[in-house]
Design goal:
By secondary structure, the protein is mainly β. The chain contains no helices and 11 strands. Strands 2, 4, 5, 6, 9, 10 and 11 form a 7-stranded mixed beta sheet that branches. Strands 1-3-8-7 form a 4-stranded antiparallel beta sheet, with no helix packed on it. A hairpin with a 2-residue loop joins strand 9 and strand 10. The radius of gyration is 14 Å and the shape is globular. The relative contact order is 0.31.
Amino acid sequence: VLLVESGGGLVQPGGSLRLSCAASGFTFSGYDTNWYRQAPGKERELVATSRSAGGNTNYADSVKGRFTISRDNAKNSVSLQMNSLKPEDTAVYYCNARAIKSPLLVYEYWGQGTQVTVSS
């Protein structure tokens, strides 16, 4: 099982980045996909979710209207388009896939993370 993120980097405030996550080794379409981030000294934060069923999306209030999560089940991938970036968006961003089969059976996979730095 692999989740491999790409697309991080350094960007100026107000700029844009697109993160991508390529999945392999499991039935991607059956998993909710999430983007988390973790800034230095802070807890990991859920940024955006794309549900496996129906494709519903959810966003943290801090990124609503600026970030867009999208998934392509045919390509086993999920992306995070980040616009109007702010210095407080600086963090390591992680791709996550989760399937809750029952209260006691949860399948969950994480990528290795990609650094996003927003600075002038």
